[in-house]
Design a protein that fits this description.
Length: 300
């Protein structure tokens, strides 16, 4: 069954605009950018309002649905990886709920905005309303990203839309969780590298102290460090580490090496320096995890 919504050109223009903005800002977009929106056929199209279900004046059906940080609705992922999105209010026939119901009938693609922290939203598109439960006041949402956006190795059962959507939505869920970890860690560190204080967000990562591949690893801020890409790579490869006293250790062979100014200023001069830590004590690096990491560092 093909999408029949009459405002499909607007939706496709929205997706194209989101591609452009994601190339500039990354997957997580500022509220100000989403609110400003873009111009389509002479009309400005914002992507957000104060309501979670948003239909722009230029559209006929909801264009975006949003999960706010600390919002009143308990949106969550179901066991099958699909998103459970709460109705607006408790009236199943509220016009916003009816709008999403009609979007489901017409298979109208929309944008899901997941709030990671105040004023920053992870944009996922296109999404489709695939289920409606008035008894629980909940819609079910599936991500169905374009085939071209997936690596070739991820191609599975594309002839069956239900299998494709469950698979792609599960990958989206993992990406949202990964991005949420990065957003929380960067926020805790004031969006600067814990070692060199670099503030360029596009050059910052959230490094796991206990590597993500370890079964006990959790996406919690105390298991993370905000690091620039140079120090993240050095940390992951055990050229440097952070001891439980929050001081940087540089591997002996790296300290003894002679090279250019990048090695000297970027790594060697970090040895013994104390990292910056979050203001809130409960968000600071877990000393036990740092001790675990230091033990492995010393065996290199």
């Amino acid at each position: 069954m093909r999408t029949t919504t009459s405002d499909l050109p607007l939706r496709l223009a929205t997706f194209e605009w989101l591609e452009e903005q994601s190339a500039i800002h990354g997957e997580v977009l500022p509220w100000s950018v989403l609110l400003a929106g873009f111009v389509h056929e002479g009309v400005r199209v914002p992507l957000v309002s104060m309501q979670g279900i948003f239909t722009p004046r230029a559209g006929r059906l909801p264009l975006t649905i949003r999960t706010a940080v600390g919002g009143p609705y308990a949106d969550a992922f179901a066991a099958n990886g699909l998103l459970l999105y709460k109705y607006r209010g408790t009236d199943p026939f509220h016009r916003d709920n009816e709008g999403l119901r009609q979007a489901m009938r017409e298979r109208a693609p929309l944008v899901y905005l997941h709030g990671h922290r105040e004023g920053r939203y992870h944009a996922i598109w296109p999404g489709f309303i695939v289920g409606d439960s008035p008894a629980t006041l909940t819609f079910t949402v599936a991500a169905d990203e374009m085939r071209a956006r997936l690596p070739a190795a991820d191609e599975v059962a594309y002839e069956d839309p239900s299998i494709r959507r469950a698979y792609v939505t599960a990958t989206v869920q993992r990406r949202i969780h990964q991005t949420a970890f990065r957003e929380r860690v960067l926020g805790a560190y004031g969006e600067r590298c814990a070692l060199c204080r670099l503030r360029h967000r596009e050059l910052l990562d959230a490094a796991h102290i206990l590597p993500d591949r370890e079964p006990e690893s959790e996406p919690r801020v105390p298991n993370g460090l905000a690091l620039c890409k140079l120090h993240h790579a050095a940390f992951d490869n055990y050229l440097i580490t952070v001891a439980p006293d929050y001081r940087v250790r540089v591997r002996r062979d790296v300290l003894d090496e002679e090279d250019g100014p990048m090695l000297r200023h970027g790594l060697q001069e970090m040895h013994g320096q104390r990292i910056i830590t979050p203001h809130r004590p409960e968000l600071r690096p877990d000393r036990e995890l740092l001790a675990w990491r230091l033990e492995r560092f010393e065996k290199r």
